[in-house]
């Protein structure tokens, strides 16, 4: 590892990784506030001083006004290995334990540090017309209840809500809202539904977890027909 002038390091124009504006600003701020981190995570370059790992960090360092950066030369990699390194260096193999993060870490700081906390995606009007309705063929094998949904993000948000010093009724409303972040596996739900007794099936239908036919969807108020349909 060595400390070199930042002007000597060349960005990799073929790096497929990029950071959106708001996260890039957080990275720049992070470098200004904690520059010691750069020595612990040097920018990896090849013999031509082209970046193999740390392309966005280099860009952020320039934005932060740094004159020098720490680099590590990977001078024994083949061309193919360099290309492989660029992708593998940016692959995230693990997953966050949302329960530990909620209990042991400051959520505000995690957000400042650039961690993608659970948030609802902002839908544009054009996105709504791209939605396709899937049709499932239930099987005779009844899945485990744990397979029906991923509750990690919902649990994380509920723990965060429980820490708030607010009115209990408001907490209840926020907790109900947190359920919107549950990641349902509707294939497994359909399989589970087809192997349950009638009273359970009925509540599944009341909650919109399964919709057996367009007519039923209309009757239960899950969808409405536009007047434009009749005009057409």
Topology diagram in text:
Elements: E1 2-5, H1 21-33, H2 37-40, E2 43-45, E3 51-53, H3 55-63, E4 68-73, H4 79-88, H5 98-104, H6 107-112, H7 125-128, E5 149-150, H8 152-162, H9 168-178, E6 183-184, H10 186-194, H11 198-206, H12 214-219, H13 227-231
Parallel strand pairs: 2-4
Antiparallel strand pairs: 1-4, 2-3, 5-6
- Low-confidence runs of at least 5 consecutive residues: 125-129
The third-level CATH topology of the largest domain is Conserved hypothetical protein from pyrococcus furiosus pfu- 392566-001, ParB domain
Structural class: alpha+beta
Looking at CATH, the homologous superfamily of the largest domain is Conserved hypothetical protein from pyrococcus furiosus pfu- 392566-001, ParB domain
Estimate the global geometry from the Cα principal axes: elongated
> Helix tally?
13
Domains (count): 2
CATH class of the largest domain: Alpha Beta
Average pLDDT number? 80
What is the gyration radius calculated from CA atoms? 25 Å
* Sheet with most strands: strand arrangement: 1-4-2-3
Number of strands: 6
String of helices and strands: EHHEEHEHHHHEHHEHHHH
Under the CATH scheme, which architecture of the largest domain would be assigned? Alpha-Beta Complex
The percent of residues in helical segments reads 40-55%
β-sheet strand percentage: 5-15%
The end-to-end span amounts to 69 Å
Main sheet makeup: 4 strands, mixed
